Amino acid sequence: MKERSASPIGFFQKYLTVWVILCMAVGICVGKFLPQIPEFLNRFEYARVSIPMAILIWVMIYPMMMKVDFRSIKNVGRNPKGQFVLRYLWS
């Protein structure tokens, strides 16, 4: 019996923790040493929502959304157990 080999983790995924810590450090440094950048970005706010932040969150989430198998949504009714749990929680 042939085993399926897992796909190797890419360079970005392998060092994701490093990238997150690096981005946090850069953000802290920008806020401390270049305060005019956050002041400028704070101008782009609508209904107390930062538009640049909303765009960056969307850019972060969009690739994960594209991996969703939208064809499987039509089969949701065939296994309604999850729907019952949601109905119970919302009632």
Give the N-terminus to C-terminus distance in angstroms.
48 Å
Q: What fraction of residues sit in β-strands?
A: under 5%
Number of strands: 2
Spatial ordering of strands, largest sheet: 1-2
Helix content: 55-70%
Model regions low in confidence, pLDDT < 50 over at least 5 residues: none
Structural class: mainly alpha
Instruction: Tally the helices.
Output: 5
> Which sequence of SSEs, written as H and E, runs from N to C?
HHHEEHH
- Radius of gyration, CA atoms, in whole angstroms: 21 Å
Can you tell me the overall shape?
flat
Mean pLDDT: 81
Report the major sheet. 2 strands, antiparallel
List the helices and strands and how they pair.
Elements: H1 11-14, H2 16-33, H3 36-41, E1 45-46, E2 49-50, H4 51-66, H5 81-90
Antiparallel strand pairs: 1-2
Walk me through this protein's architecture.
This protein is mostly helical. It is built from five helices and two strands. It has a two-stranded antiparallel ribbon with strand order 1-2. It is flat.
